[in-house]
Amino acid sequence: MRCLTCKNGSMKPSSTAYFAQLKNCYVIIENVPCMKCEQCGEDYGLRYFCCIISEHNC
Ligand SMILES: [Zn+2]
User: Fold this and answer.
1) What string of DSSP letters covers 3-58?
2) Which InterPro entries did the record assign (predicted)?
3) For ion ligand 1, residues whose CB falls within 5 Å
């Protein structure tokens, strides 16, 4: 799978930490599974997860 941002790097399974601001609080979730580009570091799982947890803000 090629990275959609740099169109050169390959995506590898990884994990990351997600930081979100909700209505009245901040949330930090660690070890969120994602696909990360080896070259530019673009993180697609993070965006996807963001849409789930804050669907009303997306
Ligand atoms: Zn990339």
Assistant:
1) -TTTSSSBEEEEEEEEEEE-SS-EEEEEEEEEEEETTT--BHHHHHHHHHHTTTT-
2) Znf_MqsA-type
3) 3, 5-6, 9, 37, 39-40, 42
